[in-house]
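Deliverable D5.2: sample structural annotation.
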Amino acid sequence: MTYNEFLKAGDESIRTMLYEALTAAPEIRRKQLIEAVISKISFSSQQLRNTAPGSELVAAKSRIGMILTAAMKSNYILEDELGYLSLNSAEINFVSKYQCRDYIISTLEGGNSYTKQELYRMAEEHFCDCKLSSEEKDLQLRSILGQVLARLEEEGHICRCGDKVSLISDRRYPSTELGCYLREAALGGSIEKFFLKAVHTMGGEWFEVYAVELLEKYFKKCGKSIISASVSGGSNDGGIDGIINTQDWLGYRELILMQMKNRNAIITPKDVREFYGAVCAEQGSRGLYVTISSFHSEAQKLIDKVDNLIGIDGHRIFLIAKKCRYGLKFNKGKLIIDEELFLNPIAKE
């Protein structure tokens, strides 16, 4: 697959590549799986060397990571306590929730309204090409259709009028979990809550790029010059996800090493110890541990004991984003989410 073909490929095609790579290498972690998919895309040697935020390689990893995150949240891909991924065969059906969701959205577009039974009959005809018996197919399709319809209604993408369902005609937002969070924030919901939820849906690779760019803007705002800023990337990054080289007006330089975790799980003391060990091994001036969640009290104590280690939790990310106007912005004096950043993650600045 060429890079241009990758850009044009639908999410279902990328999910299939993830499933195939995972089947071929059962003992594999997140970054290794993404690297395996990347290896199937034809990049030039120049593209492979460019790991700057916004580059073609980083943008591709970001998109693959977003699709992987969605597959994990839907339980198509499972992660064990050691970080190894596996396919959840119980959830892999002849038609996926993603395919069913796309079909429902396209069917309801244009102001069409249907009952659940009408949608089922049309979906049955649409997904008729499969090797399962009619009884197995009937049970699977009814179950998946019901789950998808319930989720779409919960997210506010469809509404019921009597016994029929129709699409809510707000074209600004996609019919996805991300679209739901952006809409909720725009309608007056907590900006901090839905900003962090939106960040989480974007996946770990997008978050790594965003965190590097956000801290780069923050250091510039503090009067420092940026010599270089990049995402480390790769499955063998040694626990370092991002690197920023800064210099102040006196000429003092700092090598800032970052680890980013786009997960809701709390950061443990073990996580902090391992990261600080990587910072010391790489002779970094300081380490920044960035997470959308929070730090365990014992983990925070470890951070507070060390002068060159800083923990940035979800609330501080929100405050920095607000200060730097990156991911958040003001419109007529009101703080809002910068929707363009989330809705067009592949586009470069």
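Annotation notes: Residues 224 and 243 are 15 Å apart (CA to CA). The chain has a mean pLDDT of 86.
The annotation will be released with the project's public dataset once the embargo ends.
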